[in-house]
Recover the amino acids of this structure.
């Protein structure tokens, strides 16, 4: 899918909207595996019959003093899927999971 970004092009670390080849975007997401396997980062994806239409991530603070914190990053929605509530659904799922993990203080990585 042709992914577009919520916000300014180029503002997402490792992902340049509309400029990346599919291989570069795929490599970016594969680079998340280690943090995900260590439960340091959670990833949600939204799919349609056509494939991937959106994604968002939650980075979980690892230090004991920041156990109640999480950082929201890389909210991306396919340009063809915009204005259909995809980002809202992704954020709702992220917030529900953060709440269940007792991560009540969320910040936005921009």
């Amino acid at each position: 899918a042709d992914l577009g970004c919520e916000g300014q092009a180029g503002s997402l670390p490792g992902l340049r909207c509309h400029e990346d080849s599919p291989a570069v975007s795929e490599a970016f997401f594969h680079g998340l595996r280690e943090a995900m396997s260590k439960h340091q980062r959670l990833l949600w994806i939204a799919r349609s019959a056509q494939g991937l239409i959106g994604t968002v991530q939650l980075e979980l603070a690892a230090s004991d003093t920041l156990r109640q914190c999480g950082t929201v990053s890389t909210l991306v929605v396919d340009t063809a899927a915009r204005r259909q509530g995809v980002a809202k659904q992704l954020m709702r799922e992220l917030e529900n999971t953060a709440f269940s993990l007792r991560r009540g203080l969320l910040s936005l990585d921009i």
Notes: Residues 86-100 form the longest helix (15 residues). The chain has a mean pLDDT of 78. The beta strands are 3-5, 41-48, 51-60, 69-78, 105-108. The longest strand covers residues 51-60.
